[in-house]
Specification:
Elements: E1 11-16, E2 40-46, E3 50-51, E4 57-58, E5 67-70, E6 76-80, E7 83-89, E8 93-97
Antiparallel strand pairs: 1-2, 1-7, 2-5, 3-4, 5-8, 6-7
Length: 98
């Protein structure tokens, strides 16, 4: 996994969750090159939080293991030990779900 990688401030390391549907409702198979990147993922690591006006750190509102939905073009894609992840800021997370 991403051992040794710790995001800073309000950044979050996410592993995208791949969608299982590879066909359209009419049965057309969608090739990998035409698929959009998933906008759902699992939180792998969380930064310490953002400093407020008083200099205190406000913790990030998600935790390791949370499943989240984030903006389509959110964050930066990175590779760690050959695996693909996305690093996003807390503001780019739209929802946490079960």
């Amino acid at each position: 996994m991403a051992e040794g990688f710790k995001p800073i401030r309000d950044n979050i390391l996410i592993k995208r969750l791949e969608k299982k549907d590879e066909k359209t409702p009419t049965g057309i198979i969608i090739p990998d090159t035409a698929k959009e990147k998933p906008t759902e993922g699992k939180v792998i690591e969380v930064g310490s939080g953002k400093r407020n006006k008083n200099g205190e750190i406000t913790p990030v509102g998600v935790k390791k293991g949370d499943k989240v939905v984030f903006e389509k073009w959110a964050g930066k894609d990175i590779k760690i030990n050959g695996e693909e992840y996305v690093v996003i800021s807390e503001e780019e997370i739209l929802a946490v779900y079960e």
